[in-house]
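Side project, low priority. Logging it here so it doesn't get lost.
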Amino acid sequence: MSLQIFLYIGVIFFHRVVTKSISNGTIENRTDALERSFDSLVLRINNMSDILNNIQTKAPTEKKRPHFYVELNGNTHLQMNSIVKFDTQFIGNNFNTGDGIFIAPISGVYLFSWTVQTYSSKSVQTELRVDNIVKGKQLMALGSGAGSFGTTRNVLCTVNKGDHVWIQTDNHYSDNTLDDVHGGVRSSFMGLIIQEL
């Protein structure tokens, strides 16, 4: 679009120069003036094309920013130190629903958030791990008659390229119950890069 505007301006300028040249001299002088004007116009168009190409080359290219959102489909009972294998991916990339692990494609500051759903008389304790280092924990222990309940934990942390990130149960409860309430209110896990390092 920009190149079309520059060409249009060039044609108007060329027309003005040609009109002025034709009114001031012999045919030979007019032809010489026309050739000089045309050469000047071609040079200017080439310069504008070079400038536009340089601008496009220097413009930052938009990278795909790592992100994901996954949910756990169905009721799940996990032992201690078990990875939560979120099996339904809605958006994003770099999350493996087979093993429940996100692999960071670039280094940066990431925001991770996970929600745990459970119900009366059940307990769940989970933790966010980055290359097997605990970055955050979440505990939910419900009494009888509490009904279905969900809690969310957010963690902001630095992750290096190639680091593995996952949610797992910790070593306190042997029966961690994650509930799929009425077939739609589910435990979930999401992550996105906030700033590239």
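Brief comment: Residues 27-58 form the longest helix (32 residues).
Revisit when time allows.
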